[in-house]
Write a structure and sequence with these properties.
Elements lengths: L7 H13 L5 E3 L10 H8 L2 H4 L9 E6 L14 H4 L6 E4 L3 H13 L4 E6 L22 E4 L4 E5 L3 H14 L4 E5 L2 E3 L3 H11 L2 E8 L4 H13 L8 E5 L8 H7 L3 H12 L6
Parallel strand pairs: 1-2, 2-4, 3-4, 6-7, 6-9, 9-10
Antiparallel strand pairs: 3-8, 5-7
Helix pairs in contact: 1-2, 6-10
Length: 277
Amino acid sequence: LLDTPIAENSFAGMGIGAAMTGLRPIIEGMNMGFLLLAFNQISNNCGMLHYTSGGQYKVPVVIRGPGGVGRQLGAEHSQRLESYFQSIPGVQLVACSTARNSKALLKAAIRSDNPVIFFEHVLLYNVKGEVGGKDEVQELNRAELVREGSDITILCYSRMRYVSMQAVGELVTSGYDPEVIDLISLKPFDLETIYNSLKKTRKVLIVEECMKTGGIGASLSSTISENFIDELDHEVVRLSSQDVPTAYAHELEAATIVQPEQVVEAVQRMCGAPVPV
């Protein structure tokens, strides 16, 4: 355990170098927003060294830390870096959401020979739940079916899993039957699970905390449209954060990110009136 100075570019480089020698380091960013200072190491070394060395080096490193919009943490501490890192070739992006999958996914990430950026939401650290046994691992590239349904597919990840499920409670009471999928893997997407859901529901709503411009939802939306357009009866709809710096004031902060009532309204608009049973 190395307690380093707050020098992100330096300790990221140390971790990547350690991985090249055969270790399996875990690099923790005290706040994911400040890993922007390590972008050079993550992009030019972490993601590319296996390729640029002709396969001579593996980089089995995990980069993890808290991110997302907290409670009045201000703009610099409310970054969502998954949109920044998704275009880097050679790295895998994983977002945990529960006590169980955070443990199982982290174990899998450590054992992977690929570099993994592991996103933990700052507001989910107080979530409690059962965890699996000491040997339980979870596939890094597999989405998680949170709730089965038949009317519409809601694709979400990280804290938006809970925002979506809060909305689902109201929707079910009103007669809707949404299916909810937690993406888990933000790169690559689990297209098999998504396709199997879309074949059934034929409608998809993407709920994310990323900014709308260039976010995970934008990539996912285009991927679905390119591959599964014939399975859809409605255009892909995205609910994303506003393209503005996150405000400190509570009311303004809440106005920039997706709320449960927006999910409810989007599902009602896309599905129309519920069909009586």
